[in-house]
Amino acid sequence: AIAPGEAAGLARQLSSESDLSSALNTLNNLALLYRDTGQTAIAERYWRNYLAFETYLPEAMAAAQARHNLGLLLYAQGLLDEALRLLLDSRTRFDNAGAGRWQAESRVALSRLYLELGDRDGAWVLAEQAMALPIDDPRARTRVLRQTGRIALELDRAEVAVEAFQAASELLGRSAPLQERSALESDLARAELALGRLDLAGARQQRNLQSMEQADLPALTAAARSLLGEILHRRGETAAARAMLEQALIVQQELGVILAELETLERLGRVQQQTDPVAARANQARALDLLDDPRLRRLPEVRRAGFRARYRKLYERQIALLLD
Q: Phi and psi dihedrals of 48, rounded to 5?
């Protein structure tokens, strides 16, 4: 990365301010491109270089957005200290500029980070602020509502989550891509399930699955089937739940989507625990093996720790099955 001291010399080498502005704009666009194609190391380097020229940027918002994007990138890598500093700084800059969309998105990012750090109260305050801020761009508003809805669901505020998801659904409309509509329908089904509205959740997810089955999207269809299996289990339809989860599992194993497979194995283990303990032990063992899979070990340590905490019941359930 370019040091701030080097930036001044490089800036002087450019023939005009417009040349510098054009070069920096290109650098920022390349960082976005590399981020979106999964080349995060290059994206990080480009944003750090971009911010080395911060004093030469023509607009304060440009530096704030770069700080926000770099903060999100570092958060995804588990570098929470620097991510927190960048995201807090960018929030202040967005607030000073009165940029509603970015004010909301920065609060969503900080809310997720606070959740990661265990500050549930702080996370909820930020999520509420994000939902209340005016956002002119409908797609940005939809994105904020979906993300805050998921945060509300994680914080056991399912009624708020339903309201957020329903508002997002109205904004999204029927013309949106099937993948987006399906993901939002699954969000709503999860929130309804959390509220104990089992019939509503089941009917919604059944319609969602039927829509997905008409498209060539096997991973998303399997995920929808897995969630429906969870709902059927909660409704006491054990045989139907098991069949649904086993169908989802076959596809997920073929595709190698490890996180989705782990979620389905965890659900299937709960379904089988009372009716087929031998099969339950086998699936629980498979899930525990996945937790040590090299693909998961490549995740940042803070992510692995959170993931292990989420699935600690797998260990407890396997011990109980072995002792029976």
A: -65, -40
